[in-house]
Design a protein that fits this description.
alpha+beta, eight-stranded antiparallel beta sheet, globular, about 15% helix, 3 helices, about 150 residues
């Protein structure tokens, strides 16, 4: 059974402006991430990005689960069809997605768990888990990303 219900096509049509009022968004141009150049929308550490080479298709979503209102965060997560919620701990997340394909630690009090989810339309999902606050940030993008 697929853990993720959203298709790549539906993911590509997502826009941050559907969740956050335009006056609270910053338009990004020339944004560098994953060795590529992007355009997109941002609100703090929440960034929805489209490749400069294909500016109509969303290819990366990052959500700051702490800075945004809980209802907005849950609406985004539900739209992505991820079985997650803000504050989940490491064990709860691995209970859903299994063993991560990798981990990253950039700050002492948090770890990022990397998962490959979805068989037919795969995604890379990164869940940053704070040792006290639980799940505080996630990023998701289809794999493989075009060049």
């Amino acid at each position: 059974m697929e853990l993720l219900g959203i298709s790549h096509d539906a993911f590509g049509r997502l826009r941050l402006a559907d969740f956050i009022a335009a006056e609270h968004l910053e338009q990004l141009r020339g944004w560098e991430y994953l060795d590529r150049c992007w355009v997109g929308e941002a609100s703090g550490f929440t960034e929805w990005l489209r490749l400069e080479s294909a500016p109509e298709v969303t290819r990366s979503v990052a959500i700051d689960l702490v800075a945004l209102p809980e209802s907005t965060v849950q609406s985004m997560i539900d739209t992505l069809r991820l079985p997650l919620r803000a504050g989940q701990d490491h064990q709860e997340i691995t209970g859903v997605f299994g063993k991560p394909t990798g981990t990253q630690r950039f700050v002492r009090d948090r770890v990022t768990l990397v998962f490959r989810i979805g068989a037919a339309e795969p995604y890379e999902l990164r869940c940053t888990v704070h040792e006290e606050q639980g799940l505080i940030h996630l990023t998701m993008h289809p794999t493989p990303l075009p060049d």
